[in-house]
Design a protein that fits this description.
The protein is α+β, with helices and mostly antiparallel strands. It has 5 domains: 2-167, P-loop containing nucleotide triphosphate hydrolases (Rossmann fold); 178-264, Translation factors (Elongation Factor Tu (Ef-tu), domain 3, Beta Barrel), CATH 2.40.30; 268-363, Translation factors (Elongation Factor Tu (Ef-tu), domain 3); 378-500, no CATH class; 511-643, Winged helix-like DNA-binding domain superfamily/Winged helix DNA-binding domain (Arc Repressor Mutant, subunit A), CATH 1.10.10. 36% of the residues lie in helices and 29% in strands. It has 19 helices and 34 strands. The strands form 10 sheets. A 6-stranded mixed sheet has the order 2-3-1-4-5-6. Strands 7-8-14-11-10-15 form a 6-stranded antiparallel β-barrel. A 6-stranded antiparallel beta barrel has the order 16-21-19-18-22-23.
Length: 644
């Protein structure tokens, strides 16, 4: 169980921990010289039978509140320390607010320095404390009277802490391993050691993890958990990790960094969150207010974008976006605190909803965003998954879902079990879609093919045309999967790069038999094909029937369309382009004019002009005063999505 002290400076927090554990948690020379905690201190008290109290001694002075917040990030119990001679002070109330904002579940009041006051003063201070606590989420917090000087009341406090520890319901170890770094140092003969609280999951000696800020891999050489050597580090424990890595040096690691499982490694600078503003704030909190964000053991600057009314009244709670100056790591339900940009006072706090938030530039996007927020807000990942799959017909990115909710593979299997779904790996992205929605999308595609095939007299559709026609936010790879599976079941037909509804495929194939005769004519004319009207007359096919056949041949890459009335075999067009490039290489000329081109290719002047103008159109050449120059290599050109 992790216990953190809280309270005003010089109210006896460090002395209290020393009285309980025998350890002076002030470790820095300047802390001992000044008699005041500056940084976090740590101490442990073994109660026996495997019960260990983990104490985090946080500094009370307002100048060191950043250090305090990193200590509060993952706490089970708060010890709010109040000196009997002073009573509640400004930092007392601020620390109490932070405990509430971070959703610390339990709090005990420790009234110290009782040896300095009489009974009347003691009763008066207790009355003030009870009134203060009545307005908080800890109205029934017990008050223990302590003297660090005489040790009066220490045994009673320890006994009470033992009872709490015995009845403490340890959180089930969930999620991927995440540790928020609060200290790092070098140990002679061992190397880099980092300390922090294991926020989720567990890790064993020898495992590989990732450093959030650099993305570098590291390996665990040794673990100390609860101040003892251990083979594992588990959620809720204070841990020291002895790490090693080829590219990891101590200067690259700092407080606020995360050590993460590769399954949950990501950083982001825009997060959707729920923000509560403290009741004692004197001003309305406005949209785009600059802030200091305290998340885990880190502190980062940024702005708050308020979604909707653009302000939050004191004591109110609203959905916001945290827009940060540097990327951070966070998952759903991670708690945070915000302070003003000068870091002089605590303003509010809340919890993360979505670490992969998107910008909402207009009312349409804000409306869609509000819908999504409602879907992902529940604490139950099972409910959220069901919400998302039912709402988004196109499915969801499975990797994003697992990372945002910090779910392991086994945890995902438990919540997905009752659902009938399709999950596939597309280009290294796992995608999840309900089978009913997959079938619905398949029907939409079939209907599109049926309608378009009728409109185009039996012609097929390319993939890009199908994607545009769907008019839903469906990823390309999902459509490709549906097409692939539909081809296997013969619900859709394909020829070359064109897709067909089965009702029109036979008509298309019958029409394509005409192509083979037409192809012979184009081969006969070579570099100088006549206009299609002449071809129509020569082979005796009506022009209206010929044009769809030529367009299909165009889609298959058999032909290139020079202009509205002239086509040429792709193989011939490729040869002509190569000849044009050869002229430059052999003749060592700066420009090629129509006469030179016609002379080399034996193509008539009029047709040469048509071909050269088409070269300009597709970006192969550029026309200047006395000829043309080459802009790019001919083999790299694309014509109607067909490589030449």
């Amino acid at each position: 169980m992790i216990i953190a002290t809280a309270g005003h400076v010089d109210h006896g927090k460090t002395k209290l921990i020393e009285s309980i554990t025998g350890v002076n948690s002030d470790r820095l020379p300047e802390e001992k010289d000044r008699g005041m905690s500056i940084d976090l201190g740590f101490a442990y008290h073994d109660l026996g039978n495997g019960l260990i109290l983990n104490f985090i001694d946080v500094p009370g002075h307002e100048r060191f509140i950043n250090n305090l917040l990193s200590g509060f990030s993952n706490v089970d119990l708060g010890l709010l320390v109040i000196a009997a001679d002073d009573g509640p002070m400004p930092q007392t109330e601020e620390h109490l607010s932070i405990l509430q904002l971070l959703k610390v579940k339990n709090c005990i009041i420790v009234l110290t320095k009782i040896d300095k006051v009489d009974q009347k003063r003691l009763d008066n201070v207790c009355c003030i404390i009870k009134k203060m606590m009545h307005k908080t989420i800890f109205p029934d917090a017990e008050i223990f009277h302590i003297s660090n000087k005489t040790s009066q009341g220490i045994d009673n406090l320890v006994s009470h802490l033992k009872i709490i520890a015995l009845n403490y319901h340890h959180k089930e170890v969930k999620g991927n391993f995440r540790l928020s770094v609060d200290r790092r140092f070098l140990v002679k003969g061992a190397g880099i050691v980092i300390t922090g609280t294991v926020v989720s999951g567990e890790v064993s000696v020898g495992e590989e993890l990732i450093h959030s800020k650099t993305g570098e891999s590291l390996k665990i050489r040794a673990i100390h958990s609860q101040s003892k050597k251990s083979k594992t580090g588990i959620q809720g424990h204070r841990c020291s990790l002895n790490i090693t890595g080829q590219k990891i040096t101590i200067d690259k690691i700092s407080r606020g960094d995360w050590i993460l499982s590769k399954n949950v490694f990501f950083v982001t600078n825009r997060l959707d969150a729920v923000l509560s503003i403290l009741k004692n704030e004197k001003k309305i909190f406005k949209h785009w207010t600059p802030i200091h964000l305290h998340l885990g053991s880190g502190n980062i600057t940024g702005h708050i974008a308020i979604l909707g009314s653009f302000f939050i009244n004191p004591g109110e709670k609203k959905i916001v976006q945290l827009v940060l100056d540097k990327p951070v790591h966070a998952v759903f339900d991670d708690k945070f605190v915000i302070r003003d940009i000068s870091s002089s006072r605590t303003i509010g706090g809340g919890y993360i909803l979505d670490p992969f938030a998107k910008k909402t530039p207009n009312a349409h996007f804000r409306s869609l965003h509000s819908e999504r927020i409602k879907l992902i807000s529940p604490n139950s990942s099972k409910i959220v998954l069901n919400n998302l799959l039912l709402h988004y017909i196109e499915g969801i990115d499975l990797e994003y879902f697992l990372m945002s909710r910090n779910l392991t593979a086994s945890e995902f299997e438990k919540i997905i079990e009752p659902l009938d779904f399709v999950t596939e790996l597309y280009n290294k992205h796992k995608w999840l879609i309900l089978k009913t929605n997959w079938i619905c999308l398949q029907k939409i595609i079939l209907d599109i093919l049926l309608k378009k095939n009728q409109q185009l007299f039996g012609q097929g559709m390319e993939l890009n045309t199908i994607l545009k026609a769907i008019k839903l936010n469906v990823p390309n790879f999902v459509v490709q999967n549906i097409l692939y599976e539909s081809l296997k079941s013969e619900k859709i037909k394909k020829f070359k790069n064109l897709f067909f509804h089965p009702h029109h495929f036979s008509y298309f194939i019958n029409n394509m038999s005409w192509w083979f005769d037409i192809e012979k004519k184009f081969k006969k004319y070579g570099f100088q094909p006549p206009k299609i009207r002449e071809i129509s007359l020569e082979i005796g096919i009506d022009l209206k029937k010929l044009e769809p056949i030529l367009n299909n041949a165009l889609n298959f890459g058999y032909l290139v369309k020079i202009n509205k009335s002239r086509y040429i075999l792709t193989s011939c067009f490729r040869d002509i382009g190569c000849i044009f490039e050869e002229i430059f290489n052999k003749e060592n000329v700066e420009k090629i004019n129509v006469q030179m081109f016609s002379q080399y290719t034996k193509i008539s002047r009029n047709l040469s002009i048509e071909i050269l103008e088409y070269f300009d159109e597709i970006g192969f050449t550029k026309r200047l005063d006395k000829g043309r120059v080459i802009l790019k290599s001919f083999k790299n050109l694309k014509i109607f999505n067909t490589k030449i």
